[in-house]
Hints:
Order of helices and strands: HEHEHEHEEHH
Shape: elongated
Radius of gyration: 26 Å
Number of strands: 5
CATH topology of the largest domain: Alpha-Beta Plaits
Strand order of the largest sheet: 2-3-1-4-5
Number of helices: 6
Helix content: 55-70%
Distance between the termini: 100 Å
Number of domains: 2
CATH class of the largest domain: Alpha Beta
Amino acid sequence: MLSKEAKKNYIEEMKKNFSSNESVMIAQYKGLNVNELDELRKQLREKGILFKITKNTITKIAIKETPVKDLEKYFTGPTAAAISSDPISTAKILTKFAKSHDKLKIVAGFMDGKVLDQKEVAIIATLPSLEEARAKIVGILASPAQKLVSILLAPGSKIANLARAKSLKN
């Protein structure tokens, strides 16, 4: 049981976490053992994502004064919140983990001021991460330059091949 002071500190910490991050993904973890939860926490922590197993009644108090207040109804049962500034990585990790651990259920999410349902979180998980998107853009930008060089060199090589063929005939 938390003391009154500890509850107050917990509420302030949760308010700060919910207010200062761009996304929150809520999952229920009923049936996962400690090792599985630690594995999930480790994967999330590597990407700078806070995974907080919440005390629902206290969290509902904390969430009321934050941008994610519409998520209040999802805090029921054994609930955890993955809080981060990178919704795509969070959704990817949670979705991948849920596929291999069927006891983890993604309940909802919050991104760009909008509450997301399970299906929308799954869709977000399919989007490329920031690093993947940057790599694709660089590839797209580099590709036309390579094509341009080959197009510019093509007529010269054709003329050279034609001249060589003519010289061989003579």
